[in-house]
Design a protein that fits this description.
The chain is α+β, with helices and mostly antiparallel strands. It contains twelve helices and 26 strands. The strands form 13 sheets. The chain has a two-stranded antiparallel sheet with strand order 1-2. A two-stranded antiparallel ribbon has the order 3-4.
């Protein structure tokens, strides 16, 4: 294996075995390793096949290590995700922490801070705010309206429909009502119409003009606020600027927000409630502060000092000092608080007036009783006569008719003037019962009721009225609804009503697993909100040998993340186990014998907590190969020395080669000479021969130099006509320089004869046998013929002169005569060809006229004309070649001269 490959394998997650075997691993370790083929030694396998198998084994080991690392990473991720779930969604917990840090500096009324944080949390958490009318989630982009009293969110369309329906029902109910007569015969008109609508949650009354018509932000500064990702939903993002409650003169400085404004965070300089301490800077919401001094003011009794801790002057409690005090009339005495010194015993006074005949009938009182009321001017019982008499005299009746109105206020008393109340009215009048089904004459003081039950359905729309002699104004249903609320625990306590019941207004307490932390949540939302986050330590005993401290949680405890650190009994080495604790590992398996009924049927997973065995020891240990070539760090479980797979490399006795075997054991470790186990050298001489020598050295393997090569060799000379014989070491000698060899070869390869090569002009070289191109090709003296432009004249000159000016010969008069003869022959040839074409055209024309001319032409005349045409054509065809031949003969003889 090359050095590059060895470094590459060392950089992997698990080091690969550079020696290609599993020596040193136990049987149990081999079972946990991936199944790979055993690597054969060089004795029983070829080199390429063995290297391929080694690579496959190393790849399988690295793949197994990567799988283990992936499982470890997956377990860590699952534990982190479970921690996130314990933190109640991560983002929700972070949002709650941020809100808490923003509002932590607000002092004063903690309830308002809690409400503001709760409403902000409901907006920031997904699917937390619910409209109580449609029982749907209030989303970020929905148009909403919030109550000014309870600050609950409702969809704008839902609250508009709610308000309009409430007002319409009240108007319809008012129209159905009518005035009626009571038992005294008095006419009771129907009550005035009260048109208002209520908040669905807190029942705060709103006027019709308060029905929301537009979607506004929480501070009512902006209509239809845009849904911005970086702002609170339904907020305009501007400063609230609402007047704080209680009115301290400051405005809210938070950004537009839901819920009540938090207490005023401004700072003011004020003194304590009693005013005895120096003024100090404090939050405006806490401006009413108390010192530790006692109040020096007098209490309401005017005797004792207050003595309480610092408070306002008007807040002094009543005096609690006790003393014996008489009642207002002075008849009784008891021990009471000093603040209750004036008390009434409840006894009738009973003192005699000045007349001495009558007593005071007032309850225990202070001061004088006054004059006797019977001594004042009095009238007879019916009030028709009046007289003045002493209190000792009685004023009798006047004897006239009483004439006082009776209780019915329609008839008068018909008795004589009498003392005391008048009797009942006995006048007979015709009365109708309340429902109007019965009418008869009865005494005026009696009420006429029939026994007919009302069959109308009450306002709830479920139960009948069943009241005897109902006047049509059926009272509201007085039965309790009793339906089970959505929470599933409580029943609706409201009177029987239309539509769905309102959500449960009770509070439920949820506890953490250890019950050390509790939280109140709306009833029915325990499962959705989940257990509160508890910072107390978990009380469940650890399942491993470590202490696994973590916070209280729901579900199973998180897996232990500590190192095992127990002796590794799998490898049986001295190193402690460095893997993550595996005493209690969650193992998920599936039933192997499961037979699905259909594609919807899946095998059930079996979850078990098992103790896994120690993994193989991965502590790196320095291990030297059996050949002593290298020392590498190798896992402890596979640390037995083995062959590294490289060549042995020990010098053989020949002094030239090294042992070609793979790394093997040897006897003498302190020497680098040939070992008995090394393979002896059987190769011949492999020393490079001189350049050009192709004859091998016949001696066995030996150190340089080799003997000179004596092999006879023949080679052609430069021109290739003669064979030159020489000894190899003379022609290819390593003792001579390059220049000397070139000069020697040039001399020995020249045969001394004339060169048989040709110049570029085509003539033979006139030098002796030589190498390379022929010298002086431009000095060729051979005779060549040159011609004029028309090629009529010819002249012999030297080759060099002909190449210099190949067209130096000019034309003369004979050349012009030959040229004129040639032109005449061409003219005669063109004329003869033209006459032949005209004759052919004439023949075709006559043939055409013969076919289309009819009877106009005589047959004999036409035949004679045709024969003459044929005879003339034959003569032209014979004359033209003869003339050309004669002209050619003449031109030939002229050129010969």
């Amino acid at each position: 294996m090359s050095t590059r490959n060895r470094h590459h394998h060392k950089g992997n997650a698990q080091p690969a075995n550079p020696w290609g075997n599993n020596a040193g691993s136990s049987d149990g370790q081999q079972q946990q390793q991936p199944k790979v083929k055993n690597v054969k030694t060089p004795a029983n396998s070829g080199g390429p096949s063995s290297s391929l198998k080694k690579s496959e084994e190393k790849f399988a080991q690295a793949h197994q290590k990567n799988l283990e690392a992936a499982k470890k990473y997956a377990s860590q991720q699952s534990y982190e995700s479970s921690e996130d779930e314990d933190e109640r969604g991560g983002s929700d917990g972070a949002a709650q922490d941020i809100l808490g840090s923003v509002l932590k500096n607000y002092g004063g009324g903690g309830g308002d801070i809690g409400k503001t944080q709760e409403y902000l949390q409901n907006l920031l958490e997904s699917r937390s705010a619910v409209c109580l009318i449609c029982i749907g989630t209030v989303k970020r982009a929905d148009s909403i309206w919030s109550c000014k009293s309870c600050y609950t969110f409702f969809h704008l369309l839902c609250i508009q429909r709610w308000a309009n329906d409430s007002i319409s029902q009240k108007r319809i109910s008012h129209e159905q009502q009518e005035g009626y007569y009571n038992s005294r015969g008095e006419y009771i008109p129907k009550p005035a119409l009260s048109v208002h609508w209520d908040c669905p949650k807190c029942r705060k009354e709103y006027e019709p003009v308060d029905i929301p018509r537009h979607y506004e932000c929480f501070c009512a500064k902006e209509l239809n606020p845009a849904n911005h990702l970086w702002l609170i939903p339904h907020s305009c993002g501007e400063t609230c600027r609402k007047r704080l409650v209680p009115d301290c003169g400051h405005n809210c400085v938070l950004l537009c927000h839901p819920g009540p404004c938090p207490p005023c965070p401004q700072t003011v300089v004020v003194s304590c409630k009693c005013g005895q301490s120096n003024a100090k800077t404090i939050r405006c919401s806490q401006r009413s502060w108390t010192c530790l001094k006692t109040c020096k003011l007098k209490r309401n009794c005017g005797i004792h000092e207050c003595g309480g801790v610092c408070h306002a002057a008007s807040e002094c409690p009543p005096c609690t000092s006790r003393s014996k005090q008489k009642c207002a009339c002075g008849s009784r005495t008891k021990e009471v608080n000093c603040s209750e010194s004036r008390w009434s015993c409840g006894k009738v006074c009973g003192k005699k007036y000045a007349c001495g005949l009558h007593s005071c009938e007032k309850v225990c009182h202070e001061g004088e009783c006054g004059e006797c009321p019977l001594g004042l001017p009095r009238t007879c019982p019916c009030g028709k006569t009046s007289s003045v008499a002493s209190c000792s005299e009685d004023i009798g009746t006047c004897g006239d008719t009483c004439q006082k109105y009776l209780e019915c206020e329609q008839h008068r008393c018909s008795e004589r003037c009498h003392v005391g109340k008048c009797g009942q009215c006995l006048e007979l009048v015709r009365k109708a019962c309340r429902c109007g089904s019965l009418s008869k004459e009865v005494a005026c003081h009696k009420v006429l009721n029939c026994d007919l039950k009302c069959k109308n359905v009450r306002s709830c729309g479920k139960h009948p009225c069943n009241r005897k002699c109902c006047d049509g104004q059926c009272p509201p249903c007085d039965k309790v609804c009793g339906k089970t609320l959505p929470c599933g625990k409580h029943k609706c306590n409201s009177l029987c009503h239309h539509g769905p019941c309102y959500p449960c207004n009770q509070k439920a307490t949820v506890k953490c697993r250890c019950t050390g932390t509790t939280q109140e949540v709306p009833c029915g939302r325990e499962k959705k909100i989940g257990a509160p986050k508890c910072r107390l330590p978990c009380r469940i005993h650890s399942k491993c040998h470590h202490t696994n401290p973590h916070h209280c949680h729901q579900g199973d405890c998180p897996p232990c993340q500590k190192i095992c650190d127990l002796p590794n009994d799998t490898t049986n080495c001295s190193h402690p186990c460095a893997a993550k604790c595996h005493d209690a590992v969650r193992v998920v398996t599936k039933d192997k014998n499961f037979k699905p009924v259909g594609p919807w049927d899946v095998p059930m997973e079996i979850v078990e907590i098992k103790q896994l065995p120690h993994p193989q020891c991965q502590v790196p240990v320095p291990v030297t190969c059996i050949g002593g070539h290298e020392t590498v760090q190798w896992p402890c479980y596979n640390s037995k020395p083995a062959s590294c797979g490289r060549e042995c490399g020990r010098a053989l006795k020949c002094g030239v080669h090294t042992c070609p075997l793979q790394c093997h054991a040897f006897k003498k470790r302190d020497t680098t000479e040939e070992d008995p186990r090394c393979q002896s050298c059987t190769a011949g001489c492999l020393i490079p021969r001189p350049a050009g020598c192709s004859h091998p050295c016949k001696r066995p393997c030996h150190p340089p130099p080799c003997n000179p090569c004596q092999a006879p060799t023949k080679v052609a000379c430069h021109c290739g006509l003669t064979q030159i014989f020489y000894k190899c070491h003379e022609f290819y000698s390593s003792d001579k320089t390059e220049q000397e060899l070139v000069a020697f070869r040039e001399g020995i390869l020249s045969c001394g004869q004339k060169c048989i090569k040709n110049f570029s002009c085509g003539h033979r070289c006139n030098s002796t046998c030589h190498s390379g191109d022929c010298p002086n090709p431009e000095a060729c003296t051979k005779k060549v013929k040159i011609t004029c432009e028309c090629r009529h004249r010819r002249l012999e000159v030297a080759c060099s002169a002909a190449r210099t000016n190949p067209r130096s010969l000019e034309c003369d008069e004979s050349c012009k005569t030959v040229k004129a003869a040639k032109e005449q022959v061409l003219t005669e040839r063109e004329r003869a060809q033209k006459e032949q074409e005209e004759a052919e055209n004439q023949r075709e024309l006559e043939e055409y006229e013969r076919k289309v001319g009819g009877r106009k032409k005589h047959r004999e005349r036409k035949r004679v004309q045709v024969e003459e045409t044929k005879e003339s054509n034959w003569m032209v065809m014979v004359a033209v070649p003869v003339g050309v031949l004669v002209l050619a003969v003449i031109v030939y003889f002229i050129l010969l001269r």
